[in-house]
Design a protein that fits this description.
Molybdenum Cofactor Biosythetic Enzyme, Chain A, six-stranded mixed beta sheet, 390 residues, single chain, Maf protein, alpha/beta
C-alpha cells in the first residue's frame, strides 16, 4: 500500500515548528507494510490544502493528513477533505458527548467553537481521541482513503498507535518495510564506503544508505515488502556483514548513544570514569549523565577553560582528584576565532588517563563552533571507549 502525507500548518513553512510528525508516521506505517511515497507541507489555506490532498489521492489513492482539526477558524482540513469526497459535515452527538465528558474531567467549560469538533463527514469513521479534543477521522470513498489526525504530536502519536495502526494491520501479511541502522563514528563517509566496498549485490534485495551526521555516519539497511520474519533475518545477516567490513568504527545499532556504550563497557569492567573538558564546556559529561543509571560509573567532571591546561595534565588531574580508573580530556579551538596556521580552528587534542596509562591524540574537526564542539564530544567518547576496552 502506498500512501502520501500532507502536513498542514503555516508554522511549519515559517520554520517556527519542526515537522516531527512526518518522521514518526513514516516509521510507524513502514513497519506495517505501508510505504510513504511523498510528504508535503502546506499552509492553513483552503486552496493549498485542497490541492495537496486532491493531488495525493490522484497519485496514490491514500493520504494521511495532520493538523487543522481544531476549533479555530484556521482549522479547515476536515471541511476541505469532506468537500473532496462529497461527504457533507454532520453533527455527531456521540463525539460531542465525549468532548463534554473530557472537558468535565478537566474542570473546563467548552467554548461555542468546540462544537465544530463534533462535526464528522458523512460516512467517516471516528478515531476516538482520548488524549485531546480533536478526534481523528477515517474516510473512504470513490476518491480513495483519507486519514485525518490532529497535529499535536502526543495526540497524533497515540491515535496512530491505537486507532490507525490496527486498521492497517492486515497489510503486514503482504510484507513489511523495516530498517536497521548500524552506527559508526570517527570515519568520513567516503572512507567508510571504500572500507565496506560494493556490498549491495550481496545483501539484495535489501538496500543500503549512508547517513552522515555530527556523531558519525549511520548505515541504514532497509527491507522492502518482505514477510516480517524474512525481513528480520536478512537485516540481521546484513548488519553482521556490514560490521565485519566497517571494523572498529562501529559502536552499535539503532538509536543507541555512544555515551551509553561507554558506560556499559566501563560497568562490565568494573571501572569508574571521569572527564576534563575545555572547548566542549561540559558536553561530554552531559552526554554521559543523560543516560539513566550513569551515576554508578561516572564520578564527575571538571571544566577548565583557561589556555594554560594541557590535555594530559587535564586527564591525569581529573582521574586523580575524582578517584576514577579512567578519565578523558578534551581541549582545542572551537572558533570562530583563535586559530592559526599551525593550529587552525577545529584543532582538538584528546587525552586519556587509564589506570596509569597516558595517551594523547590530535585531530582537526570541520564545521562551525557548535558542530566542532559536538564532534569533539563524540570524539572524546570514542577515545574513552577505546581506552577502557583495551
Amino acid at each position: 500500500m502506498d500512501l502520501e502525507l500532507v502536513i498542514i500548518g503555516t508554522e511549519l513553512l515559517l520554520g517556527l515548528t519542526a515537522d516531527t510528525n512526518g518522521a514518526e508516521i513514516a516509521q510507524a506505517l513502514s513497519a506495517r507494510g505501508v510505504r510513504v511515497v511523498r510528504r508535503t507541507a502546506v499552509a492553513d489555506r483552503e486552496e493549498d490544502i485542497r490541492a495537496a490532498v486532491r493531488d495525493a489521492l490522484a497519485r496514490s489513492g491514500a493520504v494521511l493528513t495532520t493538523g487543522g482539526l481544531g476549533p479555530t477558524r484556521d482549522d479547515i482540513t476536515k471541511k476541505v477533505v469532506a468537500d473532496l469526497f462529497g461527504a457533507p459535515l454532520q453533527f455527531d452527538d456521540s463525539v460531542w458527548a465525549d468532548l463534554l465528558a473530557r472537558f468535565a474531567r478537566l474542570g473546563r467549560t467548552p467554548a461555542p467553537s468546540n462544537r465544530s469538533q463534533a462535526e464528522v463527514p458523512r460516512g467517516a469513521s471516528v478515531l476516538r481521541n482520548r488524549w485531546g479534543t480533536a478526534p481523528g477521522l477515517w474516510l473512504e470513498g470513490k476518491a480513495g482513503l483519507a486519514i485525518m489526525l490532529p497535529g499535536v504530536p502526543g495526540e497524533m502519536r497515540n491515535l496512530l498507535e491505537h486507532e490507525v495502526a490496527p486498521r492497517l494491520a492486515s497489510s503486514a501479511a503482504r510484507g513489511v518495510i523495516r530498517s536497521l541502522v548500524v552506527r559508526t563514528t570517527g570515519i568520513p563517509e567516503s572512507s567508510l564506503a571504500e572500507r565496506i566496498g560494493a556490498i549491495e549485490p550481496e545483501i539484495a534485495p535489501l538496500t543500503l544508505a549512508y547517513l552522515p551526521g555530527l556523531e558519525g555516519v549511520d548505515l541504514r539497511l532497509t527491507a522492502w515488502n518482505l514477510p516480517a520474519e524474512d525481513a528480520d533475518r536478512r537485516l540481521r545477516a546484513a548488519a553482521i556483514t556490514l560490521a565485519s567490513r566497517a571494523g572498529d568504527v562501529v559502536y552499535g545499532e539503532g538509536d543507541i548513544d555512544l555515551a551509553a556504550v561507554v558506560l556499559e563497557q566501563a560497568r562490565a569492567r568494573a571501572m569508574s570514569i571521569a572527564t576534563a573538558e575545555s572547548c566542549t564546556g561540559g558536553l561530554v559529561g552531559a552526554r554521559l549523565t543523560e543516560v539513566p543509571g550513569s551515576s554508578d560509573v561516572f564520578l564527575g567532571g571538571v571544566v577548565a577553560y583557561h589556555n594554560e591546561p594541557v590535555v594530559i595534565a587535564m586527564a591525569r588531574g581529573a582521574a586523580e582528584h575524582l578517584g576514577a580508573d579512567a578519565a578523558v580530556a578534551v581541549t582545542g579551538i572551537a572558533g570562530p576565532a583563535g586559530g592559526s596556521t599551525p593550529k587552525p580552528v577545529g584543532t582538538v587534542w584528546l587525552g586519556l588517563a587509564c589506570r596509569g596509562r597516558m595517551e594523547a591524540k590530535r585531530t582537526v574537526l570541520p564545521g562551525n563552533r557548535g558542530e566542532i564542539r559536538a564532534r569533539a564530544a563524540q570524539a572524546a567518547l570514542r577515545f574513552l571507549l577505546r581506552g577502557i576496552s583495551t
